[in-house]
Amino acid sequence: MPKKPTYEELEQKVKKLEKEAIGCKQVEEELRRSEEKYKTLTTSSLTGIFIHQDGRFVFVNDRFAKVHGYTEEELLGKEYKALIHPDYREVIAERVSKRLKGESVPYHYEVQRLKKDGGTIWCEMIVAAIEYRGKPAIMANIVNITKRKQAEEHVHTLTQQLMKVQENERQRISRYLHDSVAQDLSLLKIGLETLFDGQPSVSVKIKQKSSELSKILKRSISAVRDFAYDLHPPGLDQLGLVRTVYQYCEEFAEKKQINIDFFAAGMDDLTIPFDTEINLYRLIQEALWNIKKHADANSVTLKMVASFPYIILRIEDDGKGFDIEERMVSAIKEKRMGLRSMEERVSLLNGKIKIQSCPTEGTKIFIEVPYKEKNCVRKE
Fold first, then answer.
1. Which residue from 125, 139, 206, 278 has the least number of CB within 10 angstroms?
2. With a threshold of 0.70, does the pTM exceed it?
3. pLDDT, tens digit only, all 380 positions of the chain
4. Residue 295 in domain
5. What CATH number should be reported for the domain holding residue 76?
6. Domain with 342 in it: what CATH number?
7. Is 40 within a domain?
């Protein structure tokens, strides 16, 4: 039989348990004070703060609740994804999952969120994985940037309208140059060439002078038509984007003595709005002029591929390359807007642009433009 503990042994165990209980109470008291202190700090914070765990809010401060039109009590226990705009839920859920696993994902981003009344707000968020009450959780603070996003959208809209007006004006000037100025110069050239027909008494010197003037007029007509074509390519309305770009590349290569290899795929069954077409055309035009002026390249490879949900442009040259950061700084100082204007055009199309370049290693430009319902429609 096991030996029964003595009174002294029992007394020692009781004292030990009492000490452990006191220690637990002290820990609990410390935790309570820490939580109260934390709650006071978060309540007085100028930014919204929340913690979600297992997909639901376990803590929100007053500012976070008010920004979304709720009370703190209404949000506790609510699914965190219910406040995220449907367009962003999948991306956010993936980031949360990766963050909880310790994988590297962006910690600072902008997201559109839903309010209680059904409206939306834009928030800038900083997110971190933490341990809350012994379990993994996600903590974030947010700042309402709706007014800033509205201002950006307003600028974006104005810029888009300005570019439309610019293209319309270019089209008007192009037609005037082609249909009026170039035609008048052509008639003048014909008249000059036939001015002395049937007049054998005219001296050879005058005929030579007339021939020289006719050649000047011919060059002028060619220059006017080239300028009109650059202002607004007529083929865009008649031939479509791919054939117009192909024609432009051929003419550019011949005039500028540079080899251009153009390839297109998946574009034939797309009907592309004019705004998208003209901006894609201008991007190619700007890229080729930049290459000719700055790259000292012998050849260019240009690919345009429709790969749902994007139209992808890839432009590569074998030129001398450049340091991107230095070029951007110098471009601002020298008021050159080549790359900046390309970035703005891509932004207007809600696309992305990436430029890779190093000295002596050429340059690569990658452009992705979405062609969902609002941009392009597939032909049936």
1. 206
2. no
3. 556 666 566 566 655 655 555 555 554 565 555 555 555 555 555 788 899 999 999 999 888 999 999 999 999 999 999 999 999 999 999 999 999 988 888 888 889 999 999 899 999 999 999 888 889 999 998 999 999 999 988 888 888 788 888 888 988 898 888 888 988 999 998 888 888 887 888 888 888 888 899 899 999 998 998 888 888 887 787 888 999 999 999 989 998 899 999 999 998 878 888 888 889 999 999 999 989 988 889 999 999 999 888 899 999 999 998 887 777 666 666 656 667 788 888 988 889 999 998 888 899 999 999 986 444 444 44
4. yes
5. 3.30.450.20
6. 3.30.565.10
7. no
Matching residue, tokens 């051929």: 250
Domain boundary among 144, 177, 197: 144
91 assigned to some structural domain = yes
226 shares its domain with 251: no
Contacts of 63 (CB under 8 A, 6+ apart): 45, 46, 47, 48, 49
Look up residue 91 and give its amino acid: V
Q: Among positive and negative, which fits the CA dihedral 42, 43, 47, 49?
A: positive
Q: Angle 300-301-306 (CA atoms, 0-180°, nearest 5)?
A: 145
Cis peptide before 234 (omega within 30 of 0): no
130 neighbors 137 (Cβ within 8 angstroms):
yes
Q: Residue 250: inside a domain, yes or no?
A: yes
Quote the domain boundaries for residue 208: 148-232
Task: Find, among 52, 59, 32, 36, the residue nearest to 128 by Cα.
Answer: 52
Region label for 84, one of left (φ > 0), alpha (ψ between -120 and 50) or beta (otherwise)? beta
CB distance 60 to 75 below 8 Å: yes
